[in-house]
Specification:
Length: about 120
Amino acid sequence: QVQVVESGGGFVQSGGSLRLSCAAYGFAFIDYAANWYRRSPGKGREWVGGISNHGDSTKMADSVKGRFTISMDVTKSFVYLEMNNLKPDDTAVYYCNAVSMLSSQITWGQGTQVTVSS
């Protein structure tokens, strides 16, 4: 069974950093592209960025470009979202998804809360 599990969220002060992890269960990211989204009250769901299944190509939303980066570990078991210079507007539940390159099936994680204080 394909599952993704996010971790690494928490409480941080404005200007701080966090690294979120997205762990793959039942598959390897070499066969799946991955995306990070976030959802906050009043803003709805926002795409944060994505990474190709080989981990060699990334794209980031303009709202986080230059502050957030996405990477994949060499085992293709984890995708990371490195978040620097965090702002209160970054407060949200962050979700990872995995998109099958074969079937286009999308698998979502349960999310991890990030709270940035001013």
